[in-house]
């Protein structure tokens, strides 16, 4: 039995465990199926809480796309049970797209690669309950229905990786309580420098606590990455990084600490961008958090108001960009992980800011 801890809450420090996913180490070779169980504590932050919901599920690999079989035990539409199934769906999909070893099929050179997706199969004594829950997931934007003509127009609920990674976890994990998003504000336009017309920008995160956290797993790393706003207490860190010869070659902000102080003050007063620090926490063999280490600096901006806009054609109102540096040499070689994370952050968390 292999145990995975899936969720890291964007709190400071992040909660290391929220739900557990236990995967059997040996698959059924005849059916190419893999059983696993999802353990959801009743308390979102206390792993020792005796109250928990255990959901038995199966991954079927004999078909294309693969199928995730999940029980749907929702007596009389019980909201608490429905919530637990929603959490199980999110955890199972996280494991599948990040951990289950999905292999992209080979395609002839020049042909587009098929998108990674998985079919959800819900098991229940009530077929109507399964259809209703699948429809609920479709309304949330997670599921796309595909019509199977050879099966009397049966609708198959499919989840695509490109869709899943854009979905806010809070939709399926109501007990997270990490974020509370308000509806988007009415659109209003304004002018910058008297000439650049653009939507009025929402305020960026201001409290010095993580606004984004992601568990990054690859052949090279098994770490948690987080982003937090910069403030003046980071001056010594920025001074150190900007005077790194490798960084100075591209940023040109080297010099005495007074120079970085002006640089930081300019970043903090900007109306079209905000600065963030990226930190890593490498997990130990038992997948527990160890030590947070600051590693990167990001300046996330609205392209339309940035000075680089003069070099770009056809800029849209909501285009974003990022200037960045990796300040610590030990953190080099992780570009795929933090680049995926910063883009994911900009199209999910920051899309509501």
TrEMBL record:
<dbReference type="InterPro" id="IPR019432">
    <property type="entry name" value="Acyltransferase_MbtK/IucB-like"/>
</dbReference>
<feature type="domain" description="Acyltransferase MbtK/IucB-like conserved">
    <location>
        <begin position="228"/>
        <end position="274"/>
    </location>
</feature>
<dbReference type="GO" id="GO:0019290">
    <property type="term" value="P:siderophore biosynthetic process"/>
</dbReference>
<dbReference type="GO" id="GO:0016410">
    <property type="term" value="F:N-acyltransferase activity"/>
</dbReference>
<dbReference type="InterPro" id="IPR016181">
    <property type="entry name" value="Acyl_CoA_acyltransferase"/>
</dbReference>
<dbReference type="Pfam" id="PF13523">
    <property type="entry name" value="Acetyltransf_8"/>
</dbReference>
<comment type="similarity">
    <text>Belongs to the lysine N-acyltransferase MbtK family.</text>
</comment>
<protein>
    <recommendedName>
        <fullName>Acyltransferase MbtK/IucB-like conserved domain-containing protein</fullName>
    </recommendedName>
</protein>
